[in-house]
Amino acid sequence: MPDYSRAISFTTLAAAALLLALPGLSSAQGGTGKARFEQYCSSCHGTDAKGDGPLANLLTTKPIDLTQLAKKNGGKFPGTKVMHDIDGRDTVRAHGTSDMPVWGENFKIAGTQPANVRETATRAKVQRIVQYIQSIQEK
Predict the structure, then answer these.
(1) By C-alpha distance, which of 72, 103, 70 is closest to 86?
(2) pLDDT in tens, 29-79
(3) Alpha helix (H) ranges present in the chain?
(4) Cα–Cα distance list, 91 to 26, 42, 65 (Å)
(5) Is residue 44 within 8 Å of residue 102, measured between CB atoms?
(6) CA 92 to CA 95: how far, in whole Å?
(7) CB-count exposure of residue 107 (10 Å: 0-12, 13-18, 19+)
(8) Contact at 8 Å (CB) between 55 and 17?
(9) pLDDT band at 90 (very low <50, low <70, confident <90, very high)
(10) Which residues contact 42 (CB under 8 A, 6 or more apart)?
(11) Cα 86 to Cα 105: distance, rounded to the nearest angstrom
(12) Predicted local distance difference test score (pLDDT) of residue 45
């Protein structure tokens, strides 16, 4: 008999994260980096980005302290890596699920615009979060 406990736990976690993400965004739905962080990331990483959000204890891997990324990378903020971690587009999904929810699907822009225009808009949304995380780095 298959073990569904991990799938059920993940489903519960995902549902809780979505409930915490319901408040609206500022700046005409574009949202500031901080607003997007609070909506999509703080449920696990905490409002102070220290890895102590309300859902952190439900995860098998503790969320990292996002204020220490530059310090742990020789003083240089790893912006590209953070971007890829957030948008999830470089993750090989066939290799299994990620402990961190992949929000890239939420940031994708739908519509009739050319793919490169939608891609640029998507990257701009994620970049706002990356810039916010860079702005809260501790020295």
Answers:
(1) 103
(2) 457 999 999 998 999 999 999 999 999 998 888 899 999 999 999 999 999
(3) 5-20, 33-40, 42-45, 79-87, 104-107, 115-135
(4) 29, 21, 21
(5) no
(6) 6
(7) buried
(8) yes
(9) low
(10) 20, 49, 53
(11) 10
(12) 94
- Residue carrying structure tokens 């990331």: 41
Q: What is the distance between the alpha carbons of residues 134 and 139, in angstroms, rounded to a whole number?
A: 11
Query: Of the candidates 132, 126, 21, which has an alpha carbon nearest to the alpha carbon of residue 83?
Result: 126
Query: What pTM value is reported for the model?
Result: 0.69
- The count of other CB atoms within 10 Å of the CB of residue 17 is 21
CA separation for the pair 137, 127 (Å, rounded): 16
> What is the gyration radius of the CA atoms in the chain, in angstroms?
16
Q: Using CA atoms, how far apart are residues 93 and 83, in angstroms rounded to an integer?
A: 17
Cα distance between residue 95 and residue 104, in whole Å: 17
Distance from first CA to last CA of the chain, Å, rounded?
50
- The answer to whether 43 and 17 are in contact (CB under 8 A) is yes
- Would you state the structure tokens that stand for residue 64, as one six-digit string? 């990292």
CA gap 34, 37 in Å, rounded: 5
